[in-house]
Design goal:
23 helices, protein biosynthesis, EC 6.1.1.7, Ala_tRNA_ligase_euk/bac, alpha+beta, 880 residues, BirA Bifunctional Protein, domain 2, tRNA-binding, coiled coil
Length: 880
Amino acid sequence: MKKLSSSQIRQMYLDFFKSKGHSIEPSASLVPVDDPSLLWINSGVATMKKYFEGRVVPENPRLTSSQKSIRTNDIENVGKTARHQTLFEMLGNFSVGDYFKKEAIPWAWEFMTSSKWMAFDPAKLYITVYPEDKVAKELWLKTGVQADHILEDEDNFWDIGEGPSGPDSEIFYDRGQKFNNVAVDDPQNYPGGENERYLEIWNIVFSEFNHKPDGTYEPLPHKNIDTGMGLERLVSVVQETKTNFETDLFMPLIQATEKMSAGKHYGVNKTSDVSFKVIADHARAVTFAIGDGALPSNEGRGYVLRRLIRRATVHGKKLGIDQAFLYQLVPVVGQIMESYYPEILAQKDYIAKIIKSEEDRFNNTLTDGLKLLDKQIKLARQAAKKTLSGKTVFMLFDTFGFPFDLTKEYAADEGLAVDEAGFNAEMQQQKARARAARNQDNGMGVQSGLLLDVKVPSKFIGWDHLEKTAAKLELVVVADQLVDQVRTGEAQLIFDETPFYAEMGGQVADHGLILDATGKSVAEVTDVQHAPNGQNLHTVNVLAPLVKGQTYQLKVDPAFRQAVSRNHTATHLLDQALRDVLGEHVHQAGSLVEPNYLRFDFTHAGQTSPEELKRIEQIVNAKIWAALPISWVVTDIETAKKMGAIAIFTEKYGKEVRVVSIGDYSKEFDGGTHASNTAELGLFKFTGETGIGAGVRRVEAVTGKDAFAYLEQRETWLQETADLVKTAQLQNVVTKVEQLQDQVKQANKQIESLQAKAAQQQAANIFQNVQTINDVTLVAEQVKVADMNQLRQLADDWKQQTVSDVLVLGTIVGSKVNLIAAVTKAGITKGIKAGDLIKAIAPKVGGGGGGRPDMAQAGGKNPAGLADALQAAQTFLQGK
C-alpha cells in the first residue's frame, strides 16, 4: 500500500477512471439545484439523478467524480465515533447504460491492488455480495479474489424506494486486530459486522431494476453502475490512523484549535478529544456550505448551519475558548482543500465574516441560556426535585443550542439528573414535525426508456433565424408513445432543424406556429424542452393532421422572443450590478425570464436596503442608456474562464460554451437569447424585493414598455393622491401629506386627552362601588373606553388610590370585548392571582387570556357575556 496524501488519493481515483474512458464531473454545489427532495447534496449519485432517471442523456455515459456531500441525520454522533462526519467527499464512478458488472468488478480490483494505483495487499481485502447475485460472485472469483474472502449478505441490495435499484458488492479492508474494538472470538468480528477491524471502503451498486410505484420490480431499460467510496475513510486506511480525524484532512484544523484553546491538547483527554473532533468537522461543513451560498437562519439549511456553528461554539467553551474562533479556521480548511477546491480560499473573507457574525450572536444567546439553566436548576431545588424535566432540557437544546450532554454535565455539577427519556420524546416529536414539513421523495423517478435511444439529429438555428421554411418532422410522441401521425390534441415533436428556443437557465421557451406547405396553421407551439439526447422537443396543440417525415414551416412569435430576449439581457446587467453594489459574494440562485417581467434570485446575507436597490437600478439604466453592444462567441471552458466570463458552476457545461458579452461591463457563460444592444431595453425598473429563504433574496423587475406602464400607473396613483389631499402640483404632494399627518397627530392627542378625562370621571364613579366577598374587596364594572390601553390606565389609577384588593374591568369595542384584572399585594397574600382570575372569567366572553399575579388581561368575541364575566369574578372570590 502506497503512502499518499488525501489530495493524491482523490486525484489518483479520478485519473484511474479517466484512463477507463470516464469524464470527470466537477464537484457540484452542496445546495441542490432543481431538486426539492434534498436539503443538501448527500452523495455522489445525487448529482447524477437526471441521467439515471433518463431525463438527460450525458455526452459520455461513463462519469466519475469526487463529490462534496453533507449528511445531518446523525449530528450528535460526530466526534464520538471514528467515522461520523457532516461533510465528506464521495468518490464515485458511474455508468449510464454503458458498462456493467464484467467491467466494474475487475476495474475496482485493479484500482485497489495494482502497483500502478493503490497497491493494497489483496489478502487484506474482503468482498460481500447479494446471495442471489451469482454473476457478481463469479466475476469476483474470476478477477482473482480468494473464495474465502467473498461473503454472501442479504443486506447487499440497494433500494431506496421508487426508481433504479439492484444488488451491490461492498469491499472491506482488514486493518488488523490492533484496530479492533471487539475480541477475536466476538460474533461481530467479521467483514460486515459491527467492529472497527474490517472497514467498509467501497460500495458498488449494480442498478438493474426499476422499483415501480406498485412495489414490483422490472428490468431497467438501461442498466447502470453507481459506486461510492468515502475519501475520508480511504485516507484513514492509507495513512493508518485510528479514526478519520487523525488524517491530513482534519489534523491541521485540530492543531489550529489547540493553539486557540486554554492549554488543551488532542489525544490527552477523551472528553476534550470529542470537542476537537466536533470543531474540526463542523468547521469544514459550514465553510463549504456558506461557500456554496447557504446562510445561517431558523429554517431548512440555514437551521442546520446555525446548529453546527452553535455546537462548535459550545465545544470551544469546553476547551476554554470564550470568544469567536470558528471563523479563524476558514483559511485552514481552504489550505487543506486548495488542490481541488480553490474557491474556498478565494471566498475565505466572506465566509469568515458570516461565521463570525453568527458566533458573536450565539455567544450572547449562550449567556442567556446559561442564566436560564441556572434558574431552572434553582427552581428544581426549591421544589425538592432531583431531575430536570425533558421539556426543559429540550428547550435549552432547541432554543439555545445546548447539547444534551452539556446540560447533563451542568446539572450533575449541581447534584441533579436530567430526564433523558423525556428529552428523547421531545426530540422525536421535532423530527416527526421536520419529516412532515419536508418532501419525502428523495429517491429517483422511475426510468423511462422512450426517448433515451432517440438519436435523430436536430439543429437549433434560432440564434439567427425566427423562421424555418422547410423543417422535416423527425419524431412524433403522443401519450408517451412514438407514432407516425397525429390528428388532434397534444403532441411532442422533433424536427431536423428548428428556430424555437427550448427553456433553459430560467429563460422560458419560445411560442409560435407550425404551418403546412400552403401556409395553413396546423399546430400551436406552447412549450419547448430539451429531450434526453438534447434535441428541442416541441409541445404543440395540434390543429390539423401532422405526419412524420413531411416538411413544415416553423415560425417563432417575434414579439414574444424579443420581449424575452430584452429581459434576459437585463438579468445579465442586474447580475453584475448586484456584485458592484453588494459585493463579490453575490451568486445567482435562480431566475425566470418571461416576456413581461423578470425575476432574479441571489445569495446575500440580510435585506437589500432601498438605497442599495436604487444604486443598482441606476447602474443598470446607465448601461442601457450607454447603448452597449451585445455579442457572443462559442469557445472552450478554459478559454472562457481566461476571458473573465462568469459561470454558474452548479450548472453542467459541455466541451464548448457560449459566452455573452455586454460591452466591457458583463461577460457570462450563457445559452439564452439576447437583445443586440442594451438601448433596446429602454428602461429598467424594480417592482419588488423580498427574502425567499435562508440567505436568498429575490428581486422582480420590468423593462421597456412594461417599465413605462409601471411608472405610468405609479404616476396615476400619485395624481389620485394629489386630488385627495387637494394640491394642484404633484411636487407638493409630500409636503401636503406631511402637513395632514401633523394635523392627525394633534387631533389624536386631543382625543386621547379627552378620553383620559372621561376615564377619570368614570373612575371617580366606579371606584365607589366596592364589594366585599370573603374578606376580599372587589371592584367589578363595565366601562366605556376606547381600547385595552385605556383599561390599563384605569387600572393604574386604581392602584394609586388603593381602592380595593381586586379590580375587574370590561369594555365593549365594536364586536369584541376587552377584560383586565388587577390584584394588590394584599390580595395576592390572600391567595388571589390576577392570571387565575382572568382565566376563570374570560370564557364567559368567548375568549381567553393570562398574565402576572398582579395584572392580567383577556379578549373575547361575545359582548353579550360581559355581565356574566363580571358576575363570575364574584363567584371566583367566593370560592377562595
